[in-house]
Design goal:
Distance between the termini: 49 Å
Order of helices and strands: HEEHEHEHEEHEHEHEHEHEHEEH
Oligomer: single chain
Number of helices: 11
Strand order of the largest sheet: 1-3-2-4-5-6-12
Bound molecules: beta-D-galactopyranose
Shape: globular
Structural class: alpha/beta
Largest sheet: 7 strands, mixed
CATH class of the largest domain: Alpha Beta
């Protein structure tokens, strides 16, 4: 919203979806192929439910967490009486923009968007604003446009900080231990979260790099938080991270030199890095390095149980979906939208009112209680 200040956290007036939407919905559901998503009500019909249409735009099906986010939010909104259009864009920015335009044409009341490129949605969100459609940025901040009404996420800086602190504590860096060989990685350069994950971790670790207690044999140690994109992995791709780790091990770790700690910002990168370590004959429980992660992806939790990953930062996506479903309802009912942070997230056009949730560290010893007893996984999912 233009000229947003912290005081003017206005609610957005919603234009009720016209009857025409029902007809258009029928058309969309016919054409919304299974590849990208679906448009349905709780009963499975394609006629807009009383609550109206809510657009859910997720980046890709290829990373586990987004499937969890999308399906859970979809179920919650349908149960609340809304029609949903849940679309996945295969990490293609243009596809996501087209999907958003379709949702706008169908007179969606609210758009919930986990953006692929947080800087690319200004023009399409201007179209949403023109139709008084509210926009919630989901998990990833959308930058460079005032047409974002709310943001819902986990504390992204804290995610990185937990990774950095885990390394600091486990290696005994505070007690003067070291030097250790570190290889740092960062997430996708088009993802605002990746900048925050890296800053949280690097604010803890860089002093040890400066003092020589952490050594980066590849030389890929960003000189500052702002330099993080130099070690960014586009699209969070596991195979790109694996190739990068292969290159570093082949080029800078000859003879008996071993990498001892890897800062991986999330589990999809960690998975590729772990495959590279395996192919370079590192042994779990032996010379295998400390590897960090995020998201508690199934393959990575299994790797934690096999001593191939030391930790993951778990973000219970069920709680994020529940929070967003509540925010959608508050917007539609014209109520004040519940936020708990009106200071942190400036998207270049003003502070975006935010609800942020706490992430938590999960170690091998925590898996049963944190991930199985909570119902996030079944024991059989993890080979337990
Ligand atoms: C981030 C998200 C993380 C991470 C990555 C890849 O924006 O917050 O959970 O997994 O994308 O999806």
């Amino acid at each position: 919203m233009k000229g947003r200040t912290m005081m003017s956290l206005r609610r957005t007036k919603i234009v009720a979806a016209g009857a025409g939407a029902a007809l258009l919905l029928a058309g969309l559901s016919a054409c919304s192929s299974t590849q990208s998503g679906s448009t349905t009500t709780a009963s499975g019909s394609t006629t807009a439910a009383a609550g109206g249409l809510i657009g859910i735009a997720m980046p890709t099906k290829s990373l586990q967490r987004w499937n969890n986010d999308g399906s859970h939010l979809d179920e919650l909104l349908k149960a609340a009486g809304y029609t949903t259009s849940l679309q996945y864009a295969d990490n293609k920015v243009d596809q996501q923009i087209t999907q958003l335009q379709n949702m706008i044409n169908l007179n969606a009341k609210v758009l919930v968007i986990a953006s692929i490129d947080g800087t690319a949605l200004g023009p399409v969100l201007a179209q949403a604003k023109a139709k008084k459609i509210a926009v919630i940025a989901y998990d990833r901040l959308i930058n460079g446009t005032a047409d974002v009404d709310y943001y819902a996420t986990f504390d992204n800086y804290k995610v990185g900080q937990l990774q950095g602190q885990y390394i600091e504590t486990t290696l005994g860096l505070k007690d003067g231990k070291g030097p250790f060989n570190l290889e740092p990685f960062a997430g996708s350069p088009d993802d605002n979260n990746a900048k925050l994950f890296f800053a949280g971790a690097w604010d803890v670790l860089k002093p040890y790099v400066d003092s020589g207690k952490l050594v980066v044999p590849s030389g890929k140690a960003p000189a500052s938080n702002a330099d993080w994109t130099k070690i960014g992995i586009q699209g969070w791709k596991s195979d790109t991270a694996q190739s990068e780790m292969d290159n570093r091990l082949n080029s800078f770790y000859q003879g008996t030199k071993k990498v001892q700690v890897v800062l991986s910002p999330n589990d999809s990168l960690a998975l590729g890095i772990e495959q590279s370590l395996e192919s370079h004959a590192y042994k779990p429980g032996g010379d295998w390095p400390l590897v960090t992660g995020q998201d508690a992806d199934q393959a990575n939790v299994k790797n934690m149980l096999a001593d191939k990953q030391a930790m993951t930062v778990w973000k219970d996506t069920r709680t994020l979906a529940e929070q967003v479903a509540k925010m959608v309802d508050e917007i539609i009912q014209g109520k004040t939208v519940d936020v708990n942070d009106t200071k942190t997230y400036d998207n270049g056009k003003g502070i975006v009112p935010t609800f942020q949730l706490p992430p938590q560290v999960v170690l091998k010893a925590d898996v049963q209680k944190a991930l199985v007893d909570s119902g996030f996984y079944k024991a059989s999912d993890l080979g337990l």
